TrEMBL record:
CDD domains: SpoU-like_TrmH. The keyword RNA-binding applies. This is tRNA (guanosine(18)-2'-O)-methyltransferase. S-adenosyl-L-methionine binds at I152. Its EC number is 2.1.1.34. The lineage of its organism: Bacteria, Pseudomonadati, Bacteroidota, Flavobacteriia, Flavobacteriales. It comes from Kaistella solincola.
Length: 219
């Protein structure tokens, strides 16, 4: 439990308020639903996605990049970037395949291929939700690779939501399904301690230096 020991060291540098928040929200965190973003180019969308993911208690995003850098607008995230881990991968089918090997069912958020409507979607295993680019949606090769497609019901002339709105709706609805399911969807103890270390480091002005010093002295 190396990460537990590291966190116990780092917590002495945290304010009481920040430590209380970390200890309160860490046990509720989950990576059971993993949002995967395809080459998002609008920084406001990136920021809104980070904020919505964190608000639903999921603390990791995969950002696949090719032409664009996933760069959230900090004025929009309202501090959510402190808590959400963004893993950046190449925008490729190989990256999606790697996520599948981690144990995730690949679900593309798109109305194509006889998509399951969100209210009817049953979640029983870890899910990677793939959201497409702002203009083109989910790319064809990822649609073909996906285990399932998921669509948000639409009730007006408009046939799609903005990607950040779609992500917010899906993350919230799936969180509600998990809460009612009885599934153990929360982080393992080791993942939780690793996350708490990251949160503590991100909460401190010299967090990286403090952590590096501790690791040097405690190999």
């Amino acid at each position: 439990m190396k990460n537990q020991e590291i966190f116990q060291y780092l917590q002495q540098f945290l304010t009481e308020e920040r430590l209380q928040k970390i200890n309160q929200f860490a046990p509720e965190s989950s990576d059971f639903v993993l949002p995967v973003m395809e080459d998002i180019f609008q920084f406001r969308n990136a920021a809104a996605i980070v904020r919505s993911v964190e608000a639903c208690g999921f603390h990791k995003i995969v950002a696949m990049e090719s032409e664009n850098v996933f760069n959230p607008n900090l004025r929009v995230t309202k501090g959510a970037e402190t808590w959400v881990e963004v893993e950046k991968l190449p925008h490729s089918l190989e990256s999606i395949s790697e996520i599948k090997k981690r144990g995730y069912k690949i679900v593309a958020v798109s109305p194509e291929k006889n998509a399951t409507l969100l209210p009817d979607f049953s979640i029983s295993e870890p899910v990677a939700l793939v959201f497409g680019t702002e203009k083109e949606g989910v790319t064809a090769e990822i649609l073909d690779f996906a285990d399932e497609t998921l669509a948000i019901p639409m009730y007006g002339f408009t046939r799609s939501f903005n990607v950040s709105v779609a992500a917010s709706i899906c993350m919230y609805e799936l969180k509600q399904k998990l809460l009612k399911s009885g599934i153990d969807y929360k982080l393992s103890k080791e993942k939780m301690w690793r996350m708490k270390v990251r949160w503590a480091v991100n909460s401190l002005q010299s967090g990286e230096q403090i952590l590096a010093k501790y690791l040097r002295e405690n190999p």
